[in-house]
Amino acid sequence: MKKIIYFFIVLIFSFPLLAQNNIESRREKFDPSKDLEESVIKAKSENKRILLDVGGEWCIWCHRLDAFIESSEEIKEFLNENYVTLKVNFSPENKNEKFLGQYPAIKGYPHMFVLDADGKFLHSQDTGLLEKEKSYDKEKILGFLKQWAPEKS
């Protein structure tokens, strides 16, 4: 009887670890190609460009960029009116080499790629050029977004 109780205790405490490993495995195999296909459909129907935002949870500048954009209504509004944004993970566990290999090499993170509504590559943006001290420069970000926004009829 003690062996059966011990077995169930071990099983109960092992279950979260087993479940976590399955989640990690799915993340490692994640391929953003399907999300890009959906982004193309949306961008075409809404006359927008696609902005690939490449980075990861490990990246402090990625968090800073996200927070900076979130804090500016003007940037958020312009981004939402003109772009379909797709976040692409790059991490030691998931480098998304197959997907990112179709674009120019990235030297630092975060990094952005601008695609047209069909998913065709237009521009590679080093976000380091958009920084100001320990944050980002609103005018530089808006200038970049406006330069690559689609023409409105």
The CA-CA distance between the termini, in Å, is 77 Å
Q: Compute the gyration radius: what is it? A: 20 Å
In the CATH scheme, what's the topology name of the largest domain? Glutaredoxin
Q: Calculate the mean pLDDT score and round it.
A: 85
Strand line-up in the sheet with most strands:
2-1-3-4
Q: How large is the share of residues in beta strands?
A: 15-25%
Name of the CATH class of the largest domain = Alpha Beta
What is the total tally of β strands? 6
Question: What is the molecular shape?
Answer: globular
* Helix run count: 6
**In the CATH hierarchy, what is the architecture of the largest domain at level 2?**
3-Layer(aba) Sandwich
Spans with pLDDT under 50 lasting ≥5 residues? Answer: 3-29
Output the structural class: alpha+beta
Going by CATH, the homologous superfamily of the largest domain would be Glutaredoxin
Sheet bearing the most strands, described? 4 strands, mixed
How many domains, as an integer?
A: 2
Q: In sequence order, what are the helices and strands, one letter per element?
A: HHEHHEHEEEEH
Helical amount: 40-55%
Q: What topology emerges from the helices and strands here?
A:
Elements: H1 2-28, H2 33-46, E1 49-55, H3 60-71, H4 73-82, E2 83-89, H5 97-100, E3 111-115, E4 121-126, E5 131-132, E6 135-136, H6 138-148
Parallel strand pairs: 1-2
Antiparallel strand pairs: 1-3, 3-4, 5-6
Helix pairs in contact: 4-6
